[in-house]
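Database export, one record per block. Field names are fixed; values are copied verbatim from the stored entry.
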Amino acid sequence: MEVVDAHGATIPAIGLGTWELSGHACARIVEQALRLGYRHVDTAQIYNNERDVGEGIRSSHVRRSEMFIATKVWTTHFAPNDLIRSTKESLFKLRLSEVDLLMLHWPNAQVPLQETLGALAHARELGMARHIGVSNFTVALLKQAVAACPAPLVCNQVEYHPFLGQSNVLAACAAHGIAMVAYSPIARGNAQQSEVLSRIGAAHGKSAAQVCLRWLVQQKVPAIPRTSRVERLSQNIDVFDFVLSEDEMREIFALGSPGGRLIHTATEPEWD
């Protein structure tokens, strides 16, 4: 599988998102994904499934050194002592000595960013995480974070799919030498309703969802599609045997608009 390099982190181009997955079903899908060739698994404290993800990791019998496991610290744990304590809890639930990537899940204006980033970098120093990053950060917040963090940030994980233009954030990530990782890359299933994506897919013998993922791969944006269906797992990594033309890429980019955002929270920042 292709990878994206950022400040020493090697992030597999397609990973498995686990939001809304839990229990045995979550463990099973993680296990199946790893057996099929996935090496990047993404979870978070707020998903309440780190224990299940850990079970799936162990059941897969894939060597730990081959995997890229990411989790995210929830906003209520951004005070330095809370961040370290909650990260220890995450590792205990995952039954791992370290994660490959530890991120701040959303911005939190209630705790000074410098303090939280200092604690995030400290977690890395303590060997809890090989790499650190952020999620849902705007261009302005990303600039502040890079300047304030005592260790290199390797990614900004954001919502990104053909219906949501993210050129400003993508350019900011590139300027800082960090990867942009796309969640909801298939627009929560809306891709299949698109005539443009379906037509382009048909020309390559692929689905609209596969076109979305290939579009991201060609931008060097790792994607973490979530699915609870084993057959969909295979389709989501079967995107390395075709190439979208420049015209097709342009046509897909034209679908994007600021109004295409699907994920909202009560405390979200003012988006770019």
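Remark 1: The CA atoms of residues 104 and 134 lie 5 Å apart.
Remark 2: The longest strand covers residues 129-135.
End of record.
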